Amino acid sequence: MSETLLSILCGQDGWHWLDNTNTITFNKNGTGELVCRYELIVWIAAEFEWKPQSPESLDQVVDVSGIGPTRKDPPQPISQFDIELTLAKRRIPSMRGPDAQRRRMNESLLTDDAFLPKTYTVRLERGNFLTPYDAMLPPEKEDQYHPRFALRLVFDKSPYPPQHEWKEPGMGPDATKMWEWKEFVGRESADLKMRADRHAWWKDCVVS
């Protein structure tokens, strides 16, 4: 299946580090959303503006077929491109209600430097991926209970602000270290999950 890089980048319902709680979303109109939270704690729920450094780079048509059957297969690089991303202080729509307004996030927790334009080199890969969070689980648990994704974005540096751009990093961010998160997965695939389940079933049969 062939698609433009732009349609792939913006065609996902968010790119995930962990399910829907830590995501980055790109829209074709040059806007996007960055979310970082843990349970009821929300550090970032901000809109951003973005643009490719070379607009024609996202017009490239690529083939995203041929996904590997197991996570042991190495990821296949599709393309690499540079973008400029500027985090805004505006909250995402779901965080603008009266209850959410009482929460401290975005500019309440970040310094002004966090909202300056930054340039990123992004690599798009295809394969059989868990979320980066789930990938840290023991191998005996990962295949049976967690969704699989066909695509992955790898940033040269995290889109989350670095430690020195937090006003009080010791209040939670230092423990989470979200500034180390550089990989986000997209395009959840039931077919890849089914293959992973079959792989786990076969492995259990061999062991037993």
Q: How confident overall, as mean pLDDT?
A: 87
Please trace the helix and strand order, writing H or E for each element: EHEEEEEEHEHEHEH
> How large is the share of residues in beta strands?
35-45%
Overall, the morphology is globular
The main sheet comes to:
8 strands, antiparallel
**Count of alpha and pi helical runs:** 5
Helix content: 10-25%
Detailed description of the structure:
It contains five helices and ten strands, in the order E-H-E-E-E-E-E-E-H-E-H-E-H-E-H. The strands form two sheets. An eight-stranded antiparallel sheet has the order 2-3-4-5-7-8-9-10. The protein has a two-stranded antiparallel ribbon with strand order 1-6. The protein is α+β, with helices and mostly antiparallel strands. The protein is 19% helix and 37% strand. The chain has helices at 5-10, 98-101, 139-145, 173-176, 190-207; strands spanning 2-4, 15-18, 22-26, 31-38, 41-52, 61-63, 76-91, 118-129, 149-155, 183-188.
